[in-house]
Automatic annotation (TrEMBL):
Keywords carried by this UniProt record: Coiled coil
UniProt-listed InterPro entries: ICAT_dom (IPR009428), ICAT_sf (IPR036911)
Species this protein is from: Lipotes vexillifer
Pfam families found in the cross-reference section: ICAT
Top-level taxon of origin: Eukaryota
Protein name as annotated: Protein LZIC
Sample GO molecular function, one term: beta-catenin binding
Family assignment from sequence similarity: Belongs to the CTNNBIP1 family.
Coiled coil stretches, renumbered: 27-80
Cellular compartments per GO CC: beta-catenin destruction complex; cytosol; nucleus
UniProt record, GO biological process: negative regulation of Wnt signaling pathway
Domain Beta-catenin-interacting ICAT: 134-208
Length: 211
């Protein structure tokens, strides 16, 4: 099975998030639901990561088609998540970070699967650890400057969205390096009810790449 066929198999084999139903509002059920959602998101993030790792082996059409399918699954995931959270403030508190992370991935404001995963799970400590590792890798030449800048901007944005305080230097770095898509994501994601705006932004970006 070639790389593209493998990725297609993974995409088609992923279970639909809509199949997950909540039988009760109790803490145990909420915990199980959150775990199921995190596992689903992990699979989708792994698809994106596998796709990027196999990119050199795919032609442009194969890459774009597979990425589009994964982003469509993320959109379905986001729609189901909004329905699950509707009217339940406990779930809103538990899953708001996941929803923002999914929106960041759909709009392609965030492009690093591991950062999206840590954002979704509300793991500011691990995000800061990754940033420290990136600083070291940059210093010893293991990480290119452009990739470092992209991932640092994503991490700092995630930390800010999770309510973490940034240093003045980090704020300055973010202001200087955040691109147009990320800045727009910042604006439309301020309100958790703005998922439709984020999806509209994602559609705009997809159409723009076709021109």
């Amino acid at each position: 099975m070639n790389s593209f066929a493998f990725l297609k198999f993974k995409t088609l084999g992923t279970s639909r998030i809509g199949d997950i139903k909540m039988a009760s509002r109790g803490k145990t059920e909420t915990s199980k639901l959150k775990q199921n959602l995190e596992e689903q998101l992990d699979r989708l993030m792994q698809q994106l990561q596998d796709l990027e790792e196999c990119r050199e082996e795919l032609d442009a059409d194969e890459y774009e088609e597979t990425k589009k399918e994964t982003l469509e699954q993320l959109s379905e995931f986001n729609d189901s998540l909004k329905k699950i959270m509707s009217g339940n403030m406990t779930l809103v508190d538990e899953l708001s970070g996941m929803q923002l992370a999914i929106q960041a991935a759909i709009s392609q404001a965030f492009k690093t699967p591991e950062v999206i995963r840590l954002f979704a799970k509300k793991q500011p400590g691990q995000l800061r650890t990754r940033l420290a590792e990136m600083d070291r890798d940059l210093m010893v030449g293991k990480l290119e400057r452009d990739l470092y800048t992209q991932q640092k901007v994503e991490i700092l944005t995630a930390l800010r969205k999770l309510g973490e305080k940034l240093t003045a230097d980090d704020e300055a770095f973010l202001s200087a390096n955040a691109g147009a898509i990320l800045s727009q994501f910042e604006k439309v994601s301020t309100d958790l009810g703005s998922g439709d705006k984020v999806l509209a932004l994602a559609s705009f970006e997809v159409e723009k790449t076709k021109k």
